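Co-fold these.
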Amino acid sequence: MYDLINYLWETGLNLLFSPEIFEPLVFPGLIAAFSLLIVVIWLERKIAAIIQMRYGPYYISRHTEGALQLVADLLRFLFSEVIIPKSVDKIAYVLAPIILFAFTFLPIVVIPVSKDFAAIDHEYSLLIALALMTLYSSFLLIVSWASNNKFSFIGGLREGFLSLSYEIPLIISALSAAVLFDSFNLIEIVEKQAAMGWGIFYNPLAAIVFLVVIIYSTSRYPYEIAEAESEIVIGPFTEYTGILFGLGMGISYIKLYSMSLLYAVLFLGGWEPVVWPLNLHPVLPGIILFIKAFIIVAFSVFLRAVYPRYRIDQALRIAWWKLFTLAFLSLLFSYGIKIIEVMG
Amino acid sequence: MGLLTNLVDHLKAIGTGLKYLIPRRLTLMYPEYVEKLPEGYRGYLRYDNEKCIHCSLCARICPANAIKMYRGGDKKLRPGINYTRCIFCGFCADICPTGALEYTTIQDIAYEKLEDQVYPPEKFAKGVPQPVYPEKPIFIIAKVDEERGLKYDRV
Amino acid sequence: MSEEGYMLLQIGPQHPGSGHMRMLVKLDGDVIVDFIPDVGYVHRTVEKIAETKLYIQNIPLLEKPILNDSGNANLAYIIAVEKLLDVEPPPRAQYLRTIMAELSRIASHLYGIGILSILIGSSTGFMWAFGDREIFIHLMQMMSGARITYSYMVPGGVRRDLPDQFREEFRKAARYMRRRYKDYEKIIIKNPVTRARLEGVGVLSREKAIEWGTVGPNLRASGVAYDVRKVEPYAAYEDIDFEIAVREEGDCYARLLVRFQEIMESLKIIEQALEKIPNGKILAEKYEKMIQPRAKKLVEGTGRIKFPAIYVNLKPPKGEVFSRVESGKGEITVYLVSNGSPKPYRLRFVTPSFRNLLTFKNLIPGHRLADFPAIYGSLDYFPPGADR
Ligand code: SF4
Ligand code: SF4
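Predicted complex below.
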């Protein structure tokens, strides 16, 4: 009997700690993402509040400066009535945000936690991650279309325009990292960085472009254009209530998280340096990765308190002129470094 | 050149944001902290039955028709107030020639019923309603401060 | 307004960016081709109510529509009443009125800046401006005893003298505001995103501004140096040396800058007023005499006054007068007709937001949807003020 329990326990544990389960479910997947979601939205409000000389969330848990605010919000979203307006396309209206939420998680699974711990260790894992990231906007369009509301519609259109323009600099700047490290495999890219030094020092241009694209594509200020409250209420999610709205609120943060993870892998040396006691188990270096990603996330949400928002045409111009050119230059820059390396 | 100043301005904006990350809050955490308002604040009114000379000036000047004169058992007119209408302009207290009506610094009263806010003369004369706080508040005085804007000193 | 190919967008009254107002926007793609501001959502029949109230009772009434600049609304009405009654307030009262009007202007400008900031998405600008407004509200509360509805000025003078600590408190507030201005400059005024959103947007040319009857900072941002404080000095403005903030560009950005400039100028005006303020009575001799001695004794040493009983029975002689003041949002005009009874026969109350309505309507078409809140905010348009 005891043996049986022991056996089950061990296989269970092994199963849990196998990359295929652990990654999507615990880290960097569901559990980590949810805890980050809860912390980060609180942090965003708190940072903005402090800069604006207020308190921000406070009364929900006074001793922790209101850190449980988001748990309370989530509960409220869960229990509040989901009102489905008569005029909407019901199936799309209900399903689209859920699918969108699920799809936003997908890129996370591709991101390796450490050298020996990756759910998908593929030669082209960078490209897979990038491809999965671009699924986002198409479902947001469905959300906005299904709502049958003018504000949602405008928000969806804006998102469509924006995604068309940010995807190219996103991919080019990611490619310049790939060129720099001669690989599309995320694990290899980190390994190379461990040997050579972080990508951000080799190609700061690509790093900057990628950072701006993260802010751009996840609707952080100053690119919070698709939701622009004073113009189009809350953009694609105008008609949503209850938990469906809650999902909509969380989606951009999840996306921010997944892109920040990718950023940490591409430019900040991923899980390196692996020092004691992190080398005891292949999962542990993930902590470093998480911290790096978290800093990016925190910086992005901090910008809310600094900037107003751009107008849509200005944002598009920035993407097509500045970001595109800079991304292209960064690609050339990476080639330049390669050439020097080869010659030298 | 334009690009460079642009960049500098971006950095300055972000820098200012970072600078303000040191908490210096302007919020007054009511009701844990309650401002003790200075003398002369136009809050709830105090009515002194003894001093009243039944001149009705208060009712006549009241811009919101909050004060109504009631004829008492002794056939004399006395003011009663309806706080649902009062806008705290303080005109009634300022025109009252005997100081029978005066403003107090009390302002944060909550009522359960609208009817509770109507004070006929007898009730009006009993005194000013007192605010109720969930817990004993810390009273403070607000002062302008060069560094923080407003600072709140405990009394 | 519903032909093919256009989208008709109803913004407000329940919209995060509309305020208490319904606006119809006709869109061609992202560009606004037609715009109808549908005023009247918060119409409160102020002018009609004023005919049913005593002269003194109209003081709080007229403050209500322009709630965020009630000091100036108060002043406009009182000047008209004093013209009818033919009383002249003592000099000290004139200075106190000036101080009140300027504090009120600062508060109003901070309000406008805050609203503009949040409309273009800067929550920090919004919170900062509203937070700093609190300081000036604190100062006005010291003077008048109320936070928003001051009802500070009465026919013949003001209700209270300066409190003792006021000078000291104001000195600190002025220092604080000047220091803060540098931070405002970095995070809002010179923020490249703000500039991108406001520069060259909603350009109001000098000619159009005059043609459409624009008033206030919006007019001065279009290069017209017109300020009632200079043109027809009232209160103590004649003795005070100040400059009119003018800019030539006429765009949203210029309007924002003019507001900031005026805040700084107002601080100087108050400083001067505090320096020059003469000693003496705060209520006209005519009314001062009428206060009963025992009532006077009650307020001795508090700096407050008691109203003379005549206030409930002010019967100006027959006649009609016109008064105007420069409020934070622009010119407030009051036209008052008396038929000799204790209540006004007619009161016409023209608010700056109402006069800027035409500018607002004409300025919007041709801009993008996202410019709509920017222009709306930059005009400091206050729907309750326009609707009255
Ligand atoms: S404070 Fe003003 S509104 Fe209130 S009762 Fe007195 S006169 Fe009337
Ligand atoms: S004004 Fe004063 S004395 Fe006259 S009736 Fe009112 S409370 Fe009494």
